[in-house]
Amino acid sequence: MFYHHERHFDCHYRRRGPGHSIMPVRGLLHLAILKIVKEGPTYGSEIQRILKERFSIDVPRAIIYSLLQRLEGHGLLVSTWDTSGRGPARRVYRITEEGEDYLKDALEKLSQVRDMIDRLTSS
Predict the structure, then answer these.
(1) Domain, as residue range, for 92
(2) Can you give the pTM of this predicted structure?
(3) CATH number at residue 55
């Protein structure tokens, strides 16, 4: 299941401006989004803010919403319309059980990769 979904979430994001290097987010941005949504029901704009605060990356809103649609299309998230506040209705995203399982598996694999990187860089 992990590899089936992983193929659909490859993307690159580059930080721009003087002194900013390429930010390798290929295969990680969707995991960051799932982790944020796992913490509680969330709006796309809130995800954008948290990504900037927690991971220091300024991800364009279009990329976030594109990934949210794909994650929902693969059954990892669900969304509903929130009409309770002032202003227009907004989509609120929640992680599914399949999304939680996928995230858990992916984070375990990342932990293994981190261990390998630690061993490679400590020599």
Answers:
(1) 2-121
(2) 0.77
(3) 1.10.10.10
